[in-house]
Specification:
FAD/NAD(P)-binding domain, 465 residues, 11 helices, single chain, alpha+beta, D-Amino Acid Oxidase, Chain A, domain 2, binds flavin-adenine dinucleotide
Length: 465
């Protein structure tokens, strides 16, 4: 049986390990931290890429299909709530500019259900998105917010009641873009891997020494021989590339999202996105709900989510972009308390421009943060997965978490060529049930939140779905 080494247990490396073990391969997963999926965060599934009006339709369609696939693979990690997209008055965009893309995505969703009825995971096709005029919103204001929203109108009620309608253009859009829960995913993938006898999980193991034995064509990682090497080291992928003298262009970007509590809020909210130009004071604002009044905030300005000099590129001499030590310090040590307070408060202020009641929101914990890689020379690239070097080296390069199964499929193609796996296994998705209960996943996810210093509510499942 072929022996596979994976360096890095983020979502890319952990999913590759889970997938390849279920195929029957002998996998060793090396992770330098003490738990899996503990790198940069994620909270959006990106089923359609609707948060990114600047990317092309092809990337949006790819993200839609990849997200449907991921949702079926990790059903317990999905936060089922739609997303409202609002265009601020001060923004040059027009809400109708979104319409053609939404129609295209709805059509793609319909086609994917026709191909495989189990792909119907984003609700009814006719309810994939809906536009709301100002009159529609005013009419919703008289409704009570539902504790168990069942349709798009019910989801829209808290938005209708709380948005400053003078600050946004109409119509508003609501779309079936769901959340991806970092903590439940970390919990579920860990529990699954622990159940598999052919996965050797090596936590707290930093790989610094990798080389190829030119006689046998095998990799020697941590003193052990492997047939195939998967570099899934996230923003540090270039460090492994450099050890092996592989040249690769990439960006690395440090970013953060802020955790807040809105004590007065007990409504069930959808996600709300306020579009804006990235890197300007009016950069996009993202209002991501969690149970019990917690909200995660992004503000695509240089003093909230983005950072001055936070985006760096690889060079002629190194495949690893060099991040300023102050970001490395944030990643591996911690944030200054004042920094947490000041950036989170700026994030609250950014959202308050559109949701005035949220001004009562407060800092709930340290931010979710980290550095991510973007392969190639296009920093707007969002749908990326894996690249290869020699015949037995894969380099995982996901920008969005939803691309990880496409990444596994491409790695499988190579393993089939090497005759390590049989061709009929290509594209396999259904594996024997590992019998892990959603309740156990949720419980362990809450423990992960606590261990990492976040409110345990961030791990809770929306039980209405
Ligand atoms: C603020 C922010 C918000 C984001 N929001 C979203 C979102 O909503 N949706 C989305 O899809 N994406 C989002 N992303 C991007 C997403 O976080 C990343 O694309 C994704 O986590 C990358 O996963 P990965 O497994 O490739 O890398 P990582 O998660 O970085 O995993 C790499 C792992 O390798 C380990 N490692 C590195 N070197 C070694 C070594 N030498 N030996 C052993 N282990 C090693 C690291 O410890 C790490 O655990 C966001 C990113 C940020 C920063």
């Amino acid at each position: 049986m072929a022996k596979i080494a994976i360096i890095g247990g983020g979502i890319a490396g952990s999913t590759a390990a889970l997938y390849l073990c279920q195929i029957g391969l002998d996998v060793t997963l090396f992770e330098k931290r003490s738990s899996l999926v503990s790198g940069p965060p994620f909270c959006h599934l990106h089923a359609g890429g609707n948060l990114y009006r600047e990317i092309d339709d092809t990337q949006c369609v790819t993200l839609l299909h990849q997200s449907i696939d991921l949702l079926k693979f990790y059903p317990y990690a999905i936060d089922y709530r739609p997303t409202v997209i609002a265009i601020p008055i001060i923004d040059s965009g027009n809400p109708y500019d979104l319409k053609d893309r939404l129609l295209l995505l709805r059509d793609e969703y319909k086609k994917s259900i026709k191909k495989d009825p189990s792909n119907k995971v984003l609700g009814e096709v006719d309810e994939y998105f809906k536009f709301y005029s100002k009159d529609d919103i005013l009419a919703l204001q008289i409704n009570e917010a539902s504790k168990h929203p069942k349709n798009l109108d019910e989801w829209m009620v808290p938005v209708a009641k709380n948005l400053d309608l003078e600050k946004i253009k109409f119509p508003l859009v609501i779309v079936q873009e769901y959340g991806l829960n970092l903590f439940r995913l970390a919990s579920g993938v860990t529990k699954a891997i622990e159940k598999l006898n052919n996965c050797n999980l090596q936590l707290n193991t930093k790989i610094q020494n990798v080389k190829k034995d030119d006689h046998t064509n095998k990799w020697i990682v941590d003193g052990e021989k492997f047939d195939y090497l998967i570099n899934a080291a996230g923003f540090e992928t270039g460090i492994v590339d450099d050890i092996l003298s592989y040249k690769r262009e990439r960006f690395v970007e440090f970013k953060a999202a802020y955790i807040t509590k809105w004590d007065k809020c007990d409504d069930i909210w959808p996600e709300v996105i306020f579009h804006g130009q990235r890197g300007t004071p009016n950069g996009m604002a993202q209002f991501t709900p969690y149970p019990n009044g917690y909200f995660q905030l992004h503000g695509m300005t240089n003093d909230i989510t983005l950072f001055e000099n936070g985006l760096v590129k690889s060079s002629q001499n190194s495949s690893q972009p060099s991040l300023d030590p102050k970001f490395i310090n944030k990643i591996y040590k911690n944030w200054e308390k004042e920094d947490i307070e000041s950036r989170t408060k700026l994030a609250i202020k950014h959202i308050c421009k559109f949701i005035p009641q949220f001004c009562g929101g407060s800092v709930a914990s340290k931010p979710l943060y980290g550095a991510q890689q973007i392969p190639g020379d296009n920093k707007e690239l969002r749908a990326a997965d894996v690249s290869f070097e020699s015949d037995n080296y894969a380099r995982c390069e996901v920008v969005k978490a939803s691309s990880v199964l496409t990444m596994c499929d491409s790695i499988m193609e190579k393993l089939i060529l090497l005759e390590y796996v049989d061709k009929p296994l290509q594209g396999k998705r259904n594996f024997d049930d590992l019998e892990i209960l959603f309740n156990d996943i949720e419980k362990y996810a809450q423990d992960i939140c606590t261990q990492r210093g976040y409110p345990s509510s961030l791990a809770l499942i929306n039980r209405d779905h």
